[in-house]
Structure formats: C-alpha cells, structure tokens
Amino acid sequence: MRQRIITAVFFVIAVIGGVFGGPLPLFLLVTAIALGCLWELQGLLMPGGRDFRRFAGAAAGYLPVLIFGGCLIWPGAQGDHFTAAALTLGAVAGAMLLLLGAELFLESETPFQNIGAVLTGALYVGLPLALLLSIATPGGIYNPYRVFGLLWLVWTNDTMAYFAGTWFGKNKLYERISPKKTWEGTIGGVLGTLLMAWVLSQYFSDYSASAWLALGAIASAIGTVGDLVESMLKRHAGVKDSGDLLPGHGGMLDRFDSFIFMLPFAWLAIWWLERVG
C-alpha cells in the first residue's frame, strides 16, 4: 500500500506539472505516456514477438503525437492542425508500407497480423493523444484547463466507480471480461462524474454547463468501455497488468486506458459544440 501511495503522489505531480507547465512540458508528458502505452500495447498484441517489431510498432504509433506536438510547440506553426492532420496521415501510411516491405525479409508466419498490431497502436494510442494536443490548443492558444478538466473527469469516474462498486456492488457489469466491475459501480461513476462536470463548469468558462455535462457523460460512459477493452487485451495476452512501469499500479496503459479511449469522442464533441455555439 505504501508503494502504491508513493507512486500515486509522484504520478499526479508529474501529470499536473506537465499540464500546467506549458506547451513543451505537455508535449513531453504526452510523449512519455504515448511511448509507455505503445510499448506495453505491442507487448500485449504480439506476446513473444521480436523486439524489432515491438519497437517499430511503438515508433509508428508515436508519429501522430510527434507531428501534432511539432505544430503545438514549433514557433509559427501553432494552430495549423489541418497541416498536422495531413502530415500525420501521410507519415502513418508511409510507415505502414515500409513495415510491410520489412516483413518480406523477417520471415514471419503472420506478417499481416504484425502490421495490424502496429496499425492498432497508431489508432488506439497515437491518434487519440494527438487529438489531446489539438484540444489543448484552440486557435493556437494553449489552454491547460481543457486538458485538466478531461483528466479530472476520468479520474472522478474511476474513483467513484471504485467506491460505489466496493460499497454497493452486487450485479456484474461484464463478468467475462472484468469480474470486479458492477452496474452499481458504473452508475456511481457516471453520477459522480456528472456532478464533477457541473462543478468544473462553475470555474472553467471555456464551455457551458451543458457542454461540460456532455463531456462528463463521455468520460464516464466511453471511459468505462475503454477500461473493458484494455481488460480484453490483457485477457488475450494472459496477463494481469499491461506492465510494471508504475509500482503498485501496473503499467502506463492500465492508468490511461479510459482517458485515451474517450479522447476521440471528446474531441468530436468539442468540435461540434464550438460550431453550434
């Protein structure tokens, strides 16, 4: 328990410091999260695979973060998200073709399965975290409260779901994939997150109360699905945790699975809300 608490304290300090430190610290924070999650993900998708493939999968999956990060911190390029999206698409497509060519010489019996694992990393981890960098820079102006708000909503959902499930949980949510999750815990997480979304709307005026509530609903509902998807991945690989990078807490993907999974949906909601006013 002591190790778990110490890790949690350093973890929270690093995340909050990265978010409020400015564009470069956020980029470095997202880079650490992306590379950690991608390395673990490739290990889950290709257990026993060669380190070359695991490294290539992590590198290719990181490309969206690298390109969007360049647009975030490169002088004069801030806000050019259209160019970043085009460069990302081209870079990921080129990386896929190069890896397909490399499979000719690696003599694998499952070349397309290997490429699928790499593509999964780019779509499952790299692109959502790149969208987080886009969320953080509306109009090219860095706004840490948007990132902090989304993180806080996901953390609230995880915490409230845990306590509600511990105190009241009786009916299993999806026992085949995650035996400990219950409907009572899930509902407690949703209600707690919606309450936190309303609280955030009183302090952060970027969005209206209804917009924050919409983001709260996404963080709780979609975030829960993301947690189940990662549980499915771990069952596929036959492991308890995605890694051991965070002592007492498992791996990086264990801590950010819900957050990463809900980011594309949050980005779409924000895009729509900004256009309808």
Written account of the structure:
This protein is mainly alpha-helical. It folds into two domains: about 140 residues, no CATH class; about 120 residues, no CATH class. Helix content is about 80%, strand content about 5%. Strands 1-2 form a two-stranded antiparallel sheet. Strand 1 and strand 2 form a beta hairpin. Helix 6 packs across helix 8. The chain starts with a helix and ends with a helix. About 40% of the residues are buried.
Topology:
Layout lengths: L1 H19 L2 H23 L5 H23 L7 H26 L4 H26 L7 H25 L3 E3 L3 E5 H21 L5 H29 L14 H25 L1
User: Strand fraction band?
Assistant: under 5%
Distance between the termini: 47 Å
Integer count of domains: 2
Write the H/E string, N to C.
HHHHHHEEHHH
User: In what order do the strands lie side by side in the largest sheet?
Assistant: 1-2
Task: Describe the structure in brief.
The protein is mainly α.
Describe the structure using short key phrases:
two-stranded antiparallel ribbon, 277 residues, 2 domains, single chain
